[in-house]
Design a protein that fits this description.
The structure holds 2 protein chains of 2 kinds. Chain A has no helices and 11 strands. Chain A is an all-beta fold. In chain A, the strands form 2 sheets. In chain A, strands 2, 4, 5, 9, 10 and 11 form a 6-stranded mixed sheet that branches. In chain A, β9 and β10 form a beta hairpin. Chain A is globular and about 40 Å long. By secondary structure, chain B is mainly β. Chain B is built from no helices and 11 strands. In chain B, the strands form 2 sheets. In chain B, strands 2, 4, 5, 6, 9, 10 and 11 form a 7-stranded mixed sheet that branches. In chain B, strands 1-3-8-7 form a 4-stranded antiparallel sheet, with no helix packed on it. In chain B, β4 and β5 form a beta hairpin. The N and C termini of chain B lie far apart (35 Å). The chains are: A mainly beta, B mainly beta. At the A-B interface, β5 and β10 of A face β5 and β10 of B.
Chain lengths: 109, 112
């Protein structure tokens, strides 16, 4: 079945720097969702992208859906310690969601 | 406050024992899901239910069982057939299909 792949698996970032994490699918997705899981916590829904080429912003977070609707990215500007956690993308599969393995972000102060 | 409640937060299982994890939601969601999370492996779907009295196997259903007798409740039983049950178990719900999922706080299961 369709799977979403995320890279990188780990991202170590200096506080104040920017970084991007990517989500790729072998098949076209009708939509893509992003979740954040803080250490010791549970995943929390961040955003859903539906349209080809769609870009949405949440403060320092910018989410993009590729033109072919096969990939997505999350870009974080001026990383803060509050950005620590694991970011998951999820794509539809057989009326369910298929989650990527996640990108775990650590921040050096 | 609407949400999903999982209990207990921590659970220990003895060899040969079945244990049941509770998941209750008051969001009036039709669909409910159970995921297993191991370090570095993301979320793997165990079972899901899109409507009361109906449920389907996910990707890793072996050694697990569920029931959906009420809309609000979707308990997961980890049976003795599950030889490696140590993991973080997350319950989620949504309005169905590809709608965003809401997660409970999870249950950490360990072997004694």
């Amino acid at each position: 079945g369709q799977q979403v792949m995320q890279i990188p698996q780990y991202q170590h970032v200096q506080e104040g720097e920017d970084f991007t994490t990517y989500c790729n699918s072998s098949t076209t997705l009708s939509n893509i969702q992003w979740y954040k899981q803080r250490p010791g916590g549970h995943p929390v829904f961040l955003i859903q992208l539906v349209k080809s080429g769609e870009v949405k912003k949440q403060k320092r977070l910018t989410f993009q859906f590729g033109e072919a609707k096969k990939n997505s990215s999350l870009h974080i500007t001026a990383t803060q310690t509050t950005d620590v956690g694991t970011y998951f993308c999820a794509g539809p599969r057989d009326y369910k969601l298929s989650f990527g393995a996640g990108t775990t972000v650590t921040v050096r102060a | 406050d609407g949400g999903i409640t999982q209990s207990p937060k921590y659970l220990f299982r003895k060899e040969g024992q079945n244990v049941t994890l509770s998941c209750e939601q008051n969001l009036n969601h039709d669909a409910m899901y159970w995921y297993r999370q191991d370090p570095g492996q993301g979320l793997r779907l165990i079972y899901y239910s899109q409507i009361v009295n109906d449920f389907q196997k996910g990707d890793i259903a072996e050694g697990y069982s569920v029931s959906r007798e009420k809309k609000e409740s979707f308990p997961l039983t980890v049976t003795s057939a599950q030889k490696n049950p140590t993991a973080f178990y997350l319950c989620a719900s949504n309005l169905g299909g590809y709608q965003p999922q809401h997660f409970g706080d999870g249950t950490r299961l360990s072997i004694l």
